[in-house]
C-alpha cells in the first residue's frame, strides 16, 4: 500500500531496481474519479507544487458542470451500445468542456447557449453538442448536482436551422461502389438496403432461424422480423454464411469467421469508394459524397411508398422519413 502524508491524495511510492537500488516517486490519487493515478515525478518539492494545482482543480469543479461531465464520461458514455455513438458523443463532450466546464449551473442560460451556437462554424454539429449537454444536464439533476431545469426546456426554434441533406443513391451510384466492394462490404450494403437497418445493426444482426431473420434495433430497442422466403438478397447472404465456419452467431463475418467491426467496414468503404471514383470519373463527385449510412436512404427509396418506407425504417413519424430518407418524388396523375 502506498504511504500517505499530510497532503490529501498525494501518495509516496517506492520500487526497487534490478541492482537493488530503491526509487521514490509521487503520484496523485485519481481513484475518486475512476481514473489512473497521475505520476508527479521523483522530486518531492515539484510534486507538491503539482499537487497544489491538481487539488485546486479537484475542489474547483464542485458545483460546476465539469463535475457532471467527468461522471457522465466515466459512467454513462461507455453504456451506449453503438461505437459510432460513443465516438461522436465523446467528440461533442470534448468541444463542450472548454466552454462550459468551469461554469456554475446558474450561469447557463438560453442566451449563453445561443451564443455558443452562433460562434460554432459547424452549425449542425453545434446543435448536436448542445443536445449532448442537455442529456448530461438531465443526468446531473438525477445525481443531485443541480435542481435547475434545462434552460431551454419547452422552447422551440432556438437552435441553428438545419436543412435535410438531399442525396439519392441511384442504381448507378450503388452499382459503382458495389462493383469495387469485397464480400464483406457487399454483404453489409445488401443487408442495409434490404432491411433498412443502420450499419451498426447490419453488423450485429444474428443468423436467421427457422427461415426468419430477427433483430432488436440497438438505437430504438424495437424488434423486427424478416421472412427470408420473401427476400432473395437475404436468402443468398444466409446461404453464403452457412459455408463459413465460425464460432460467431453473426450473419456477417470475415472469411476467417471473425466478427465484423465498424472500422473494418469504413476502411473497405473508403477503398471501394476511391476505386469507384477512378473507374467512373463522370460520377466521381457524387460517389465521393456518398456515405455508407446512405444505404438506409436507398432502402427507403426501394420501399413501395412512404408508408412502407416509414415502417421499414421503424419511424413513428412519416415526416422524418419524408424529410431525411425518402428521396423519390411523389408520383402524381395529371388531371387533364
UniProtKB/TrEMBL annotation:
Q: Which GO terms describe its molecular function?
A: DNA binding
Gene3D superfamilies to which the protein is assigned, alphabetical: Intergrase catalytic core
Q: Set out the biological process GO terms recorded for this chain's protein.
A: DNA integration; DNA recombination
> What InterPro entries is this protein classified in?
CB, DNA_brk_join_enz, Integrase-like_cat_sf
Locate the coiled-coil region(s) and give their ranges.
none
Q: What SUPFAM superfamilies does this protein map onto?
A: DNA breaking-rejoining enzymes
User: Domain Core-binding (CB), which positions?
Assistant: 67-141
State whether keyword DNA-binding applies: yes
Keywords tagged on the record: DNA integration, DNA recombination, DNA-binding
Tagged with keyword DNA-binding: yes
What is the protein's given name? Integrase
Q: Which organism is it from?
A: Vandammella animalimorsus
Amino acid at each position: 500500500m502506498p504511504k500517505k502524508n499530510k497532503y490529501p491524495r498525494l501518495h509516496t511510492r517506492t520500487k526497487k531496481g534490478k541492482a537493488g537500488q530503491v526509487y521514490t516517486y509521487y503520484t496523485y490519487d485519481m481513484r475518486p474519479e475512476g481514473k489512473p493515478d497521475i505520476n508527479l515525478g521523483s522530486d518531492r518539492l515539484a510534486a507538491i507544487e503539482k499537487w497544489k494545482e491538481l487539488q485546486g482543480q479537484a475542489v474547483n469543479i464542485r458545483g460546476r458542470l465539469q463535475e457532471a461531465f467527468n461522471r457522465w464520461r466515466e459512467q454513462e458514455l461507455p453504456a451506449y451500445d453503438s461505437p459510432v455513438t460513443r465516438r461522436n458523443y465523446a467528440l461533442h463532450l470534448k468541444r463542450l468542456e472548454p466552454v462550459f466546464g468551469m461554469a456554475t449551473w446558474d450561469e447557463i442560460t438560453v442566451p449563453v447557449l445561443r451564443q455558443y451556437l452562433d460562434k460554432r462554424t459547424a452549425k449542425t454539429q453545434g446543435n448536436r453538442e448542445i443536445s449532448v449537454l442537455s442529456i448530461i444536464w438531465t443526468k446531473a439533476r438525477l445525481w443531485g448536482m443541480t435542481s435547475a431545469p434545462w434552460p431551454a426546456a419547452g422552447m422551440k426554434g432556438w437552435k441553428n436551422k438545419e436543412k435535410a441533406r438531399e442525396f439519392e443513391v441511384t442504381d448507378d451510384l450503388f452499382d459503382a461502389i458495389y462493383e469495387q466492394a469485397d464480400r464483406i462490404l457487399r454483404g453489409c450494403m445488401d443487408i442495409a438496403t434490404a432491411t433498412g437497418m443502420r450499419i451498426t445493426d447490419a453488423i450485429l444482426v444474428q443468423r436467421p432461424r427457422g427461415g426468419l431473420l430477427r433483430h432488436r434495433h440497438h438505437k430504438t430497442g424495437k424488434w423486427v422480423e424478416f421472412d427470408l422466403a420473401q427476400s432473395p438478397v437475404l436468402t443468398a447472404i444466409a446461404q453464403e454464411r452457412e459455408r463459413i465456419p465460425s464460432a460467431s452467431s453473426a450473419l456477417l463475418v470475415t472469411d476467417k469467421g471473425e466478427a465484423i467491426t465498424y472500422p473494418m467496414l469504413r476502411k473497405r468503404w473508403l477503398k471501394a469508394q476511391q476505386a469507384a471514383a477512378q473507374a467512373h470519373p463522370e460520377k466521381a463527385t457524387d460517389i465521393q459524397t456518398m456515405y455508407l449510412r446512405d444505404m438506409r436512404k436507398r432502402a427507403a427509396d426501394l420501399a413501395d411508398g412512404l408508408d412502407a418506407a416509414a415502417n421499414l425504417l421503424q419511424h413513428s413519424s412519416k415526416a422524418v422519413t419524408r424529410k431525411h430518407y425518402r428521396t423519390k418524388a411523389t408520383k402524381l396523375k395529371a388531371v387533364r
